[in-house]
Automatic annotation (TrEMBL):
Gene3D superfamilies: Ankyrin repeat-containing domain
Source organism per UniProt: Photinus pyralis (Common eastern firefly)
Full protein name: Uncharacterized protein
Pfam families named among the record's database cross-references: Ank_2
Top-level lineage group: Eukaryota
ANK repeat locations: 22-54, 55-87
Assigned keywords, A-Z: ANK repeat, Repeat
Species classification: Eukaryota, Metazoa, Ecdysozoa, Arthropoda, Hexapoda
Keyword Transferase among UniProt keywords: no
Length: 124
């Protein structure tokens, strides 16, 4: 019988901070590849849900850039910080608006993202 994946993950105490040559931790890789269940397990296992990659992108930024509504919903439900700015000083909401992703924009606003936060050019 296959063990429950979340209990198996918890018992193994996997290192969620290990990174590859590009300094990407498992949560960054999973979110950038749309691996919803893996992201959920990593967060449940204690991964830093606001971790940033070398470009300053959080898992939420990466989900927004992929127009991945399910991932955005999961991350919002796990109370990620929606106001972290990436390397070009964009919040996930600013990215969603600039990319024209209406559903993701709606999810972020309904989730409590600051509509008046500006980027480095003071665009809101």
């Amino acid at each position: 019988m296959m063990p429950n994946s979340s209990s198996y993950f918890s018992k193994k105490k996997a290192d969620c901070t290990i990174s590859n040559k590009d300094k990407e931790v498992p949560l960054i890789k999973a979110s950038s590849n749309g691996l919803l269940e893996v992201v959920s397990l990593l967060i449940e296992g204690g991964a830093d849900k606001n971790v940033q990659d070398r470009n300053g992108n959080t898992p939420l930024h990466l989900a927004v850039q992929r127009n991945d509504t399910e991932m955005v919903e999961l991350l919002i439900a796990n109370k990620v910080d929606m106001e972290i700015k990436n390397g070009i000083q964009d919040t996930p909401l600013i990215s969603a608006v600039w990319l024209g992703f209406k559903e993701v924009t709606r999810l972020l606003i309904e989730g409590g993202a600051n509509k008046s936060a500006g980027n480095r050019d003071n665009n809101t």
